[in-house]
Structures are given as structure tokens and as C-alpha cells.
Amino acid sequence: MGQSQLVTGNVLGGAVNDNLTRFLVMSGNLGFVTNAEERVELPIRDAGTASNLFVYVSTNTVSANTTVTVRKSRVDTAITVTYASDETGIKEDTANTATFAATDEIDIEVATGTEAGTNTITFTAMGLSYTPSSNTISIAEHLSEATAPVNNTTYFFPPGGVTVSAFTATEANCQYRVRQAFTAQDFYTFMTSNARTTNLTVKTRKNGADGAQSVVYTSGQTGAKEDTANTDSLAVGDDYNYAVTGGTDTGNIVVPQVSSTLLSTNNSFHLIVADDAGYGVAFNQNQLMPLGGRLRGTATEALTQVTTQFAWTASELGAYASANTILVSDSTVTFRLNGANSPVTVAYATLQTGLKNDSVNTAAVSAGDEINAIVSTPNSSGTLTLTWIAITGATAVVAGVLRPFHFCVMGVQ
């Protein structure tokens, strides 16, 4: 069995007012907060055990207690942390665990106390370990609030991160370059709104062509759909992403969640932070990002770090630049460990765009280490625009020991 790390993040924050119960995705874009739990539930299709909840609160004006709880099929588990009056910072539950069956769903519940006025608690990063019964699992999830007329057009989104305003027709910006072999399976979608009168097909894409997994929404149909019959075999160097194709009418749709399970037999998992519209880092900047959810940066590193509670090796850092007007010298994207740059890094030369990958360097991550990424631009002029950053993790196998599993989710805002 191989361990995986699940990360959900957004430096812009997921905010919950007092006297409310709200739900957040456990892997992907933490900025999406909803009272409709079905919109953020992730399907668990490989039985295992969740543990080691990590939560970071950036601001808190709620004077009553706030509880953060891992949910299993809309029932609270024993995994939980509590923030007291106006408390911020890191909270972890390293004592409790929860067992999941292959038919369960997972998400996060935030319940705030009652007080006078309107007060808010804001989350920027969460993490969780998962120990599957066999193999290693990542969940590549994309969440979106885009409302787009899809009229005889195919729109694309990456297997992680978020679409905020409109789907993109530029597939290259959305293709995640696979650096370890995976089998993509258990393709899952949830559609909130569908004003179409013709069929919509939501599907996987492999190397710029339709993959084997898909679901079809007929006229006006909404809710959850799942393809458990088909799989996509992903080899090292393959490109993987999602797409939606519509018929001849122009009604709007909202697809808040698309995900698939990436199954590994070589103890590998991946973490991806993405935004298909791109995030521009101006010159002379050091912008820090979480390794899951929406691709957005900040100068405050604590907002982006997640603590992992098992040992693994980070490698194969990848990034995709859709535009680059930076002049004079290189820009770099680097995997960070405990607030310092690791050797795992890629560089974009002046005006260089496209895919970059570090297949040489590695970094050893120990239990209790904090992980994130940084984009550094030179003191010149221009902007580097990125659509995704990803890292591959690998764990050692110990006979007879179950290893936690990692989801990589695609974010929504």
C-alpha cells in the first residue's frame, strides 16, 4: 500500500460567518464554501482510513467556538478540531481516524457558534492523510462555478484547480503532464444547473483526444453522474485533462465538480494547484502557493503551508506557463520544504512559455514537514502567467503496513 497526501487550499480564503454550518471540499479549492453538501462531496471508491487532519485559519472574529470535522457520507467522523474565540493559526487532529468504504463520500463540515453581529472565520489551507487498502490513490478533481454557453464547442479544464468565470477552449493550458504511471478511473461529475435542450458530454481527455471515461447529461438534467466501467491508462509523459462538449443550443450550465481517481501501483501520488484562466506573477515578486486548490499567490507563507504526517519523496515538479513577458533573466518555480527552497525547481527563461519539468532533483519529506510552492520573478519588467503547478510524491513500502492515501483535487471558487 502507498500513502497519499490530500490538500485543499486557496490563499484568498474560504470564509464562514457565525451561526452557520457550511461544507468545503477535502481536496481542491478551499475557496468554495456551500450549504449544499452534495456540491463538495468527493467519491471514495477505494476503501481505507483517513487521519491527520491539518487546518490553517488566517483570520477569525467569531467569539464562539468553531468546529471543523471530516464528514463520511454526510455523517460526522471522529476527526475534528476546534477553534476557540477569535483563535487563528494551525490546528491538527493526529489522534483520531475514520474508516471509509468504497461507496462512501468525503468532505469537510465547518460549524460556527452564535454571537451578536456578523463575524467570520477564514480558512486558507487544509490537509488529510488517507490509507487505502491497496495501491496508492490520488483524486484529480476540478470544481467550477463557470456558467458558459457550450454550443457545438468543446471546453477544457485541468484535473485540479478551478474555473471561476468561463470555460476555456485552449486545451494546452489545461493538460497535466503525468510523471508516473496511473490508471484513471471512477470518473465523477456533479451538475448544479443545466439550461440545455440537447445533450452535454463531460469526459476525460488523453494526449489531446477523447479518453475512455465520460458521462452524458440529457436536456435539463442535473445532479451526480459516474462512469465506473471505463478507465484511462496513463503512462509517463501522457497529458490528462477534462472536457465538456455541448450540442447546438446555447443554454448555460454550472458544473461544480468533475473528478477521477488516479490509481498507482508504484506508490506514487500527485498534488496539483491550478486555474485554467491563469495567474499572473508580476516581475520582482516571490509568490507562495499551496499545493492544492486554486492557483493564487501570496507573500505570507503560512497561508499556503500544509503539514504532512508521513515520509515521502517529492520529485518531478511540473508547471505550465500560458504567457510570459518577463525580461532580462529567469523566473523560477520551486517546491518548498519547511519555509526553504528545495532542489526541486524549474526555470523559465526570458519570454519562455509552455511546459517545464524537473526530472532530476528530489526532496525528502519527513513526517511533520510543511510543504508548498513558490514562484520567483526577477527585478525587470513583465508578468509570468501560470495555469498549473504540480509535484509527484512517492512513498516507500513496508510489508504489512497500511499507507495513507492522497487526493489531488481540482479547485473551485
Helix content: under 10%
Hey, roughly how much beta strand do the residues contain? over 45%
Derived structural class = mainly beta
Radius of gyration: 20 Å
- Continuous helix count: 0
At the third CATH level, what is the topology name of the largest domain? Jelly Rolls
Sum up the overall morphology in one term.
globular
Give the biggest sheet.
6 strands, mixed
Weakly predicted, low-confidence segments = 398-413
CATH architecture of the largest domain: Sandwich
Mean pLDDT: 91
The level 1 CATH classification of the largest domain is Mainly Beta
Query: In angstroms, what separates the terminal alpha carbons?
Result: 33 Å
Q: Please tally the β strands and state the result.
A: 33
Question: Topology, pairings included?
Answer:
Elements: E1 4-17, E2 21-24, E3 28-29, E4 42-43, E5 48-60, E6 66-72, E7 75-83, E8 89-100, E9 105-112, E10 120-132, E11 136-144, E12 154-157, E13 162-163, E14 176-177, E15 182-191, E16 193-194, E17 200-206, E18 209-217, E19 223-227, E20 232-234, E21 239-245, E22 253-254, E23 257-264, E24 268-282, E25 286-289, E26 293-294, E27 306-307, E28 312-324, E29 331-337, E30 340-348, E31 354-365, E32 370-376, E33 383-394
Parallel strand pairs: 1-3, 11-13, 24-26
Antiparallel strand pairs: 1-10, 2-9, 4-9, 5-8, 5-10, 6-7, 6-9, 11-23, 12-21, 14-21, 15-19, 15-20, 15-23, 16-22, 17-18, 17-21, 24-33, 25-32, 27-32, 28-31, 28-33, 29-30, 29-32
